[in-house]
Design goal:
Layout lengths: L1 E10 L4 E3 H4 L7 H8 L3 E3 L7 H16 L8 E5 L10 H9 L5 E5 L5 H14 L5 E9 L17 E11 L4 E9 L7 E2 L17 E2 L1 H23 L8 E4 L4 H11 L10 H4 L6 H11 L8 E8 L3 E8 L3
Parallel strand pairs: 4-5, 4-6, 11-12
Antiparallel strand pairs: 1-7, 2-3, 6-7, 8-13, 9-10, 12-13
Helix pairs in contact: 3-4, 6-7
Bound molecules: acetyl coenzyme *A.
Acetyl coenzyme *A binds next to helix 2 and helix 6.
Length: about 325
């Protein structure tokens, strides 16, 4: 028994912030941001929109595309590091608002790897036959946690949500293998120091702080490692993969790994120029767009690979059938 993706949906906020807009608050330029990251613009949620609002819209689209009713969902898992509250979880907010009255629900905290982590957990519940239908969401509004005067971070992030419905399949399709990793000793390179139980009054600030160079080094190393390891587990060769969907953080990270591994450009999906780094939403958002662009067809082999705070990394290889 495997977990097959039966439906996909995504949601982005309407407001676009361009690189030129950012030059009003920090010493940067459109050219610098495009050359060093590939990002041209990002979506930023307004103050009335919380992460769950984007997550619900994405989840409703995924349920509609899977033709599965909320009552049929057995479990909801949300990968996020910008929940509406410390508790209840976004998954429980979704369970209530979607009317998924038969579902258990919890969030997974693995930052930009959150979707791959949540997908792996969800697929295991299906493979071991505990559940039949699992809703997996990646959603973040990290722009709410940016210091808009820190040019090392505020240029990178955007908001969004993406969702998939996993359902039991025994026809050889679905998630063939998963691979997860954590390197907690590097966690200090990407951290939000304030707001947790170590600093509940947020004296240290509730802003993302990052050593970009260290995260870059980690990213290129583990992106390659995760793709190689997950394919080894699935017993699939690199050349047999039809589409790679890497975490959309920086085009230089993606290009570096693609070049090193010899991945043809047309097999690597990139949409970060429009959205920046949307954290846990980045991979399901790209998956939804790749599907809409006609880049994925039945029986294709797809690799999803993400990395992020923790530091964490995760990958899934899928034989596509929808
Ligand atoms: N505009 C103009 N100049 C800038 C900017 C900016 N926005 N930011 C930095 N600079 C300057 C620096 O001050 C430095 O100037 P100096 O040489 O005079 O000291 C110069 O540009 C080069 O700076 P670097 O930090 O070396 O730039 P780099 O090429 O490393 O790019 C970046 C920085 C884009 C942050 C890159 O390191 C990166 O993308 N790292 C990975 C980050 C990432 O992916 N994080 C998300 C992880 S996922 C998650 O879980 C949230």
């Amino acid at each position: 028994m495997k977990a097959r993706i039966a439906g996909v949906g995504s949601k982005i906020p309407e407001k676009i912030v361009t690189n030129n807009d950012l030059t009003k608050t920090v010493d940067t330029s459109d050219e610098w941001i495009k050359t060093r990251t590939g990002i041209a613009e990002r979506r930023v949620s307004d103050e009335k929109t919380a992460t769950s609002d984007l997550a619900i819209a994405a989840a409703q689209k995924a349920l509609a595309s899977a033709k599965i009713s909320p009552e049929e969902i057995d479990l909801i898992i949300v990968g996020t590091t910008s929940p509406d509250y410390l508790f209840p979880s976004i998954a429980c907010i979704l369970q209530n608002k979607l009317g998924a009255k038969n579902a258990a629900a919890f969030d997974v905290s693995a930052a930009c790897s959150g979707f791959n982590y949540a997908l792996t957990v969800g697929s295991n519940f299906i493979e071991n036959k505990t559940y039949k239908n699992v809703l997996v969401v990646g959603a973040d509004t990290l722009t709410k946690y940016l210091d808009w005067h820190d040019r090392g971070t505020c240029i990178l992030f955007g908001d969004g949500a993406g969702a998939v419905v996993l359902t039991a399949a025994d026809d050889g399709s679905g998630i063939l293998a998963s691979w997860l990793k954590a390197e907690g000793h590097l966690g200090h390179h990407l951290i939000m120091p304030g707001g947790g139980s170590r600093d509940p009054e947020e004296k240290k600030g509730r802003f993302i702080t990052m050593d970009g160079k260290e995260v870059f080094k980690f990213a290129v190393r583990v992106l390659e490692e995760s793709i190689a390891e997950v394919l080894k587990k699935a017993n699939i060769e690199l050349k047999d993969v039809n589409l790679f969907i890497p975490h959309q953080a920086n085009i230089r990270i993606i290009d570096h790994v693609a070049k090193k591994m010899g991945l043809p450009k047309e097999k690597v999906y990139v949409n970060l120029q429009k959205y920046g780094n949307t954290s846990a939403a980045s991979i399901p958002l790209a998956l939804d767009e790749a599907l809409a662009d006609g880049k994925i067809k039945n029986n294709d082999i797809i690799v999803l690979s993400g990395f992020g705070a923790g530091l964490t990394c995760g990958a899934n290889v899928i034989k596509w059938r929808i």
